[in-house]
Amino acid sequence: MHSFYGSAVAAVALLAARATAHGIATAMVHWPDGTFYHGYDPSYQYQKPPPVVIGWGIPNDLTNTFISPSGYATPDIVCHLGATPAGIAAPVNAGDVLEIQWNKWPASHKGPVLDYLANCNGPCETADKTKLQFFKISEAGLLDAAKNQWAADELLANNLSWSVRLPSDIAPGNYVLRHEMIALHAAGNANGAQNYPFCFNLVINGNGTATPTGIPAVSFYKEKDPGILFDLFTKFTTYVIPGPPLYSDALTAAQTKPGAIKATASGVASYVAPAGGGAAAPTRAVRSPAGHAVREAAPAVETPAGVPNAAPAAPAAAEATVAAVVDQQPAEPLPTTLLTAVLKVKGRA
Question: Nearest CA to 253 among 165, 179, 181, 168?
Fold first, then answer.
């Protein structure tokens, strides 16, 4: 039974949370080449035309809200409130590290960080989110019970970033990366947990053949799971991370402060496997922010001068360029099959 003190503290925490903004996973950096990709921000809907980015659209999330346990059986738990597929994808390799960047996160919102993958089995731009079968590739929860240290605290300490390593054995194709934080400050009460899922489209290249079995996101959690109905303000020594089991060949990534961004890109269109299998470059046209169809991704956004380790400005409408223009290649360029993803890049001081 929860103590009166614990319930009172939880109530205060809930009221404080409602008075402050939460957070959004707004960008991704691909390592080892240090290429920055914009995710989605609800403010993009006010740009005409809105930028095409790798993050799934959530224009209804104007208040940085969350998905509560009462919404676990609804499509909103997949990629957040009213999410729609991203228009392009980040080209990456199996085994690479992806750094997810958040715009903010309250220190009071302690809890786990989880990452999932789902193969779209076709273009992710037109994927039906209710049919995506996700498998978990990363999870972290309570790190130090004595210090009340959680994965969310580690993300906050590392400049609002979290790194996840893609499995090295998965088959190439179009995937959705589902990145999620669960805030537990009010989870001692029924329907008090707060889920913040965000999705990014990926084109994964590699020589793997594994096709891990997944489940729909609506099957991840139940309202009374021990990792969902959890009183953060009582004495505890363990925490059961919610969701399906971790993929057996999942890889770990070190959680460190972000490195310097070396390049900026928008993304590519769908992966198309050639006859007979194997990897292939994306071939469908991408619509640029200016509304011009091009074979490469939309124009790059340059990093603000003199601002080390800062995210580039939000994508803006610009005249599309059919040929990719390169000022300075990333330190470790992508494979030749994915070089069409590299846009105009600019070294960062």
Answer: 165
3-state SS class at 142:
strand
Q: How far apart are CA 304 and CA 36, in angstroms?
A: 13
What domains are there in the chain, each with its CATH number?
1-349 (2.70.50.70)
Burial group, residue 223, by CB count within 10 angstroms (0-12, 13-18, 19+): middle
Q: Helix, strand, or coil here: 69?
A: helix
d(CA 243, CA 116): 10
DSSP 312: P
Q: What is the pTM of this model?
A: 0.78
Q: Is 144 exposed, middle or buried (0-12, 13-18, 19+ CB in 10 A)?
A: exposed
Q: 50-89 burial, b for 16+ CB within 10 Å, e for fewer?
A: bbbbbbbbbbebeeeebbbbeebeebbbbbbbebbbbbbb
The pairing of strands 35-38 and 173-183 is unpaired
The tens digit of pLDDT for each residue in 249-291 reads 999 999 999 999 999 999 999 776 665 554 444 433 333 333 3
333: alpha, beta or left? (left if phi > 0; alpha if psi -120 to 50): beta
DSSP label at residue 182: E
Q: How far is the C-alpha of 218 from the C-alpha of 215, rounded, in Å?
A: 8
Helix (H) or strand (E) holding 139: strand 134-140
Count of positions (residues) in the chain: 349
Specify the pLDDT at position 217.
98
Tens-digit pLDDT profile for residues 311-334: 444 443 322 322 222 222 233 333
pLDDT reading at 101 higher than 80: yes
**DSSP β-ladder status, 263-264 and 161-165:** unpaired
Query: What's the confidence (pLDDT) of residue 225?
Result: 98
Q: What are the tens digits of pLDDT across the range 200-258?
A: 999 999 999 999 999 999 999 999 999 999 999 999 999 999 999 999 999 999 999 99
Phi, psi of 138, rounded to the nearest 5 degrees: -160, 145
Between the alpha carbon of residue 318 and those of residues 55, 134, 315, the distances in Å are 19, 35, 9
Give the tokens for residue 283.
């071939």
